[in-house]
Each structure stands twice: as C-alpha cells, then as structure tokens.
C-alpha cells in the first residue's frame, strides 16, 4: 500500500521547504495545485492512492478542471504543481514511472502585463494624504516599489538594516531566499527617512527591524499593500487593473524604454532566466509603435 494523500502532501511540503528552499507563497501554490487533484478523485468516487495514479486519469482530471477554468494560465499553473508532485514521488521511489511526463501544457498566448505611465504614477502619489499618520509610509511604499522594482513579498519583508544609505543600495531577499543588491534612488531614500520619523512615534513596535508597519506596530501584509494601491489608483481615476506588481512591471518597462541593458534589468528584478525579462522588450516594441504612429508623418 503506497502513501496516503495526506502523508504524501505532508512529505511533499517538507521537500519543497527544506530541499527546494521555496518561499511560503510558492509552497502554498504548489500544495493548492495537488489538493485539486485529490478533490477530483474524491468527487469522482475514485478510491486511489497517489502511487496508483495513471496518465489517462491525469488527462481526465485536466479535462475536468479545464471545464470550469477556461484560463489557460491557471490550467498551466495547476499542471506545473502536479508535475512537481509526481517528480517528487519518483525521486522518493514511491512510483516507478511518472504519469505526468506525457501531459501537454495548454497553449498560452503572450500576455503583456499592465504598465503605468510616469504621469499615472505621479497622479497616484499625488493622491496620498500626507496629513494622515500613514501618509508618508504609503508614499515611501510606492517610491520603493517603483524605484526598486520589488515584488510585494520582498517589500513587506524589507528590514531597516537592508538599506545601505552611503552606497545607495538595498539588500533584497527574493524567491528561494536568494539575495540581490538593488540600487535605490535618492527620492525613495528621502521618503523612507521621513516615514521613519512617523514610525518612531508608534506606541508599540512589535518587530523593530521590519521597515513598513501598520498602526499596531506589526508588519504589513501583502493584502494591505494591495488595498493601499487599489484605493489610491481609484482616487487618481486610473481605470487599469493594477496591483503592487504593476509598479514592478512599470519599473522594468521604463528602464528598457530609456535604454537600460537587459542583463542589468534582469539582475535588478532577480529573474532566474533572461527569458522572463525579455517580455519587457515586447512592451517596449509596442511603445515604439505607438511613438511611430503619433509622430511619423506617414503613419
């Protein structure tokens, strides 16, 4: 008798955390993917252990899942998690053959991320009420997100000791706990300094080293950063579907539009592969086309 779903999930989670050194968010995503597979077997009344799953059953699962989830990116995400799970079972010797190896990924078209213009970013910052206690904090958050191209998880985990003022660099801890050095602008450093004066006035600070805190002195959550940005964008009258990640996309796009080297942008974003960074060259091309249409006499 092979491992039960519960046992295999527990072992898989440990493997992702200790051996693959994935972040908590990545681990949660993988576990959600494989839990969908278990749910499928429950709903189809298939009393089957992970070691007994076959390729035809996985193919049927993807058809079942795709019927209610038309987004090919979501389907691809789930497939990625399931492949990782069965690769793990193969490594551990729980299965002799990987039933997911023949599964084909859904065709995904190129989807360019939403990007803000410099004027739109200025409009968002202009909507921040600096008379409120959280005003300077929110301004420092936007300047740091856009100025350094950070992921939201990197922002909420940013520590005071990560900022190196003399060198004008910030130490960023990214995916898989990998650290990188990212230049930080004088404007962002200035806003952080102003915010730190308000931070020191908080009645309680539960984590002395976390940079961005709520009014109770605890670190901000990812959800809170989303809320702050959505509210500011709505006040600024921006109708684009934006999130904290939009500032990262905007950072990369504006850098490449200005002529920055692709490898340098890859390094600052912390991308494993330059192929991930190359999506911003597609955005740049669309920007160039718009420029041609606007200014070329024959356009």
- Please state the average pLDDT score: 87
The span between the termini is 70 Å
Fraction of helical residues: 55-70%
Shape: globular
Contiguous runs where pLDDT drops below 50 for at least 5 residues: none
Q: Architecture of the largest domain in CATH?
A: Orthogonal Bundle
The major beta sheet can be summarized as:
3 strands, antiparallel
Return the structural class: mainly alpha
What features would you describe in this structure?
With 299 residues, the chain is mainly alpha-helical. It contains 13 helices and 3 strands; from the N terminus they run H-H-H-H-H-H-H-E-E-E-H-H-H-H-H-H. Strands 1-2-3 form a 3-stranded antiparallel sheet. Strand 1 and strand 2 form a beta hairpin.
Summarize the SSE layout with pairings.
Blueprint: H1 5-19, H2 24-43, H3 55-68, H4 72-91, H5 118-126, H6 135-148, H7 152-156, E1 163-164, E2 169-173, E3 179-183, H8 186-199, H9 222-235, H10 244-257, H11 262-269, H12 274-277, H13 279-295
Antiparallel strand pairs: 1-2, 2-3
Helix pairs in contact: 1-2, 2-4, 6-8, 6-10, 10-13
